[in-house]
Amino acid sequence: MIRVVLAPDKFKGSLTAPEVARGLAEGIARVRPDAEIVRVPVADGGDGTVDAFVAAGWERVAVDAPGPTGVVDKALYAMRGDTAVVELAAVVGSAKLPAGVFDPLGSSTYGLGVVIADALDRGARHIVLGLGGSASTDGGAGMLVALGARVLDAVGRELPRGGAALVEAAELHTAGLHSGLASARITLACDVDNPLLGPHGAVAVYAEQKGADRDQRAILEAALANWASVAGSSYVDSPGAGAAGGTGFGAMTVLGAQPRSGIDIVLDLLEFGSTLDGATLVVTGEGSLDEQSLHGKAPIGVCAAARTAGVPVVAAVGRALLAPDRIHAAGFTACHTLTDLEPDPARCIAGAAELVVFLGDSIARTHLPTP
């Protein structure tokens, strides 16, 4: 029996992870219709994480929540039993900005707290919080306020939302936090190791990508430094404190959240190890296999799990920016790219759904035994 496990991440900008898995499965089935093909789309905690769990049969929950600039929209998370997977990007990420316009000083994580509260109200006692794709730099303060905390200025006034307002923060009160948090644990699915402040911190590394100019970055750095002095500085230098505009810091400091590799927690929750039993081949991938991929991105985590189980693993990607020897050193048997089939980037992206089927066909012909 030929058993192929398909565990791709999304091809950002063209295909979701379930769409990639579906296309690869179609291509492989053309060559080996007798093969058992198991689709397990994955993610690393960033955008697409909820999609991966819904594809695995978890309940899809929709809730009205404010986006980063306060505009209310539908936000989705996934739930099974007492575990909820909440994806920051799906609530207050860049994709939720009206007309794609950044508000670096005023954007907030408030909506994220609204979604977490909804999950707690539904009985969740383990919240997996995927950090990535953030549009704000508010140290997680907005999230905490939505969960019942109060952030006040020196004269006792509630602060407005947004990172810049934290310059005026003087008090943090947590007595009113959601009662469900007392018996819940929060895991941060996080693959960045940035501290909160300084040259490698949330502002210096990421704020420019969120539309902040030099003067605005100075304001946000000062605001986060003040926020740390108010909330407690124990986690300022912790790896991951700077994730998602400092949301990691707020979650660790006030909610007792524990950071963990995003792909590792995703694979555990999807019970990926048992999926590998009896597998002939694993196929994983993402839009671009590059230097960033080597630092804990989804395909590397899948590859490590497959190698531990003794199953060969092939990369199926949009493009590969790593030399073949580095791809092999990372544990992949081979790498197949859409750009091998269509070198023109625009046509490659536009035709990705069809091309990934041909990629599956090629992988089956190259790496599966002939009938």
Q: In a nutshell, what does this entry contain?
A:
The chain has 371 residues and is of the alpha/beta class. 36% of the residues lie in helices and 19% in strands.
Description:
- This protein has 2 domains: 3-42 and 271-367, Glycerate kinase, domain 1 (Rossmann fold, 3-Layer(aba) Sandwich), CATH 3.40.50.10350; 49-262, Alpha-Beta Complex (Glycerate kinase, domain 2), CATH 3.90.1510.
- It contains 15 helices and 15 strands.
- It has helices spanning 17-31, 49-55, 89-92, 110-121, 141-146, 202-206, 214-231, 243-255, 262-269, 272-275, 298-308, 324-329, 338-341, 345-350, 352-367, and strands spanning 3-8, 36-39, 59-66, 72-80, 83-87, 126-130, 150-152, 171-173, 185-189, 258-260, 281-285, 288-289, 313-317, 319-320, 334-337.
- The strands form 4 sheets. Strands 3-4-5-6-9-10 form a 6-stranded mixed β-sheet, sandwiched between helices.
- Strand 3 and strand 4 (72-80) form a beta hairpin.
- The longest helix has 18 residues, at 214-231.
- Belongs to the glycerate kinase type-1 family.
- This is Glycerate kinase.
Core attributes:
15 strands, Rossmann fold, 15 helices, 5-stranded parallel sheet, alpha/beta
Helical stretch count?
15
Name the CATH class of the largest domain.
Answer: Alpha Beta
Average pLDDT works out at 96
Major sheet characteristics: 6 strands, mixed
CATH fold-level topology of the largest domain: Glycerate kinase, domain 2
CATH architecture of the largest domain: Alpha-Beta Complex
The helix content is: 25-40%
CATH superfamily of the largest domain: Glycerate kinase, domain 2
How would you describe the shape? Answer: elongated
Count up the domains.
Answer: 2
CA radius of gyration is: 21 Å
Q: What series of H and E elements makes up the topology?
A: EHEHEEEHHEHEEEHHHEHHEEHEEHEHHH
Keywords: Kinase, Transferase
Pfam families: Gly_kinase
GO molecular function: glycerate kinase activity
Protein name: Glycerate kinase
